[in-house]
């Protein structure tokens, strides 16, 4: 009976060291990882973990939202695990412990999965509200544009003379996509 870990971070630039440490402390003999958004259906690390595991094994995750953000997705994964005789252990959060799809345990797990999805939706809502408030105050997020008014004037003049976007981009040391975005 093996304890197999699964960790997931939402962006390629994020690191899962906290999850890694917790899974190691929980005695996971092998850990699978995905670097993808929870809403992303493509999770090769989770699929590999599920393929590797056998009846009697335990899938261990740091927190419920690492398994998936959609209530349906989390419950479907939990049911697949149970159908194959694989336990689900959650290390932290309100639902820490081992998942049992029976009676009160199933009801509690379903409610926690719904709350995890609600939390994700609220984070998205707050993020969008914050971005809208910043935009209303004239602040714009993201990296500063490499296209200044001078560069744009030069680019438009070269384009008017019939020079290709590729040649202009190379000469001005900007990407073709950036030029297309600014001069069409």
Task: Kindly describe this structure.
The chain has eight helices and five strands, in the order βαβαβααββαααα. Helix 6 (149-160) runs antiparallel to helix 7 and helix 7 crosses helix 8 (176-183). The chain is 53% helix and 13% strand. Strand 1, helix 1 and strand 2 (30-35) form a beta-alpha-beta unit. The protein is elongated, with a radius of gyration of 24 Å. It is of the alpha/beta class and 184 residues long. The N and C termini lie far apart (60 Å).
Short account of what is shown:
InterPro entries: Homeodomain-like_sf (IPR009057), Resolv_N (IPR006119), Resolvase-like_N_sf (IPR036162), Resolvase_HTH_dom (IPR006120), SSR_resolvase (IPR050639). The protein is built from 8 helices and 5 strands. By secondary structure, it is an alpha/beta fold.
SSE layout and pairing:
Layout: E1 3-9, H1 17-25, E2 30-35, H2 44-52, E3 58-61, H3 64-67, H4 71-83, E4 87-90, E5 97-99, H5 103-136, H6 149-160, H7 165-172, H8 176-183
Parallel strand pairs: 1-2, 1-3, 3-4
Antiparallel strand pairs: 4-5
Global morphology? elongated
User: What number of domains?
Assistant: 2
What is the CATH domain class of the largest domain? Alpha Beta
Distinct helical segment count = 8
- Annotated CATH topology of the largest domain: Rossmann fold
Percentage of residues in helical conformation: 40-55%
> What would you give as the CATH superfamily of the largest domain?
Resolvase, N-terminal catalytic domain
Return the structural class.
Answer: alpha/beta
Tell me the span between the first and last alpha carbons.
60 Å
User: Which stretches are poorly predicted, pLDDT < 50 over at least 5 residues?
Assistant: none
Order of helices and strands: EHEHEHHEEHHHH
Sheet with most strands: 5 strands, mixed
Question: What is the average of the pLDDT values?
Answer: 83
C-alpha Rg (nearest Å): 24 Å
